[in-house]
Amino acid sequence: MRKLFNFQNIIFIALAVYLTVLLFNQQGTLSAKMEQNQELKQQIASAEAQLEALQEEEKLLDTDAYIEQKAREILGYVKSNEIVYIKH
């Protein structure tokens, strides 16, 4: 009858425990990285949407309608035949 705790069995058990701990540790790291990946994908989507909006605005920058709109909004300009109403 062989001994239950001979040198080979101890090495095998130690190796199995080490690999099990390593597996669980790697699983935790993988989960964290996958979550980080999802967050980064959301940031990329947000940045792409912002870029698209800025590109659309850039197309309008040199048009007379855009310049007129901004002059009205920011500077309060009005045309000579318009009536201005002021709220109190």
Please describe the topology of this protein:
Layout: H1 7-60, H2 64-75
Describe this structure in words.
The protein has one domain (7-75). Helices cover 75% and strands 0% of the residues. It is built from two helices and no strands.
Brief digest:
With 88 residues, this protein is mainly α.
Q: In angstroms, what separates the terminal alpha carbons?
A: 103 Å
- Model regions low in confidence, pLDDT < 50 over at least 5 residues: none
Task: Return Rg in Å.
Answer: 34 Å
Can you write the helix and strand succession as a string? HH
List its salient traits.
2 helices, 75% helix, 88 residues, rod-shaped, mainly alpha
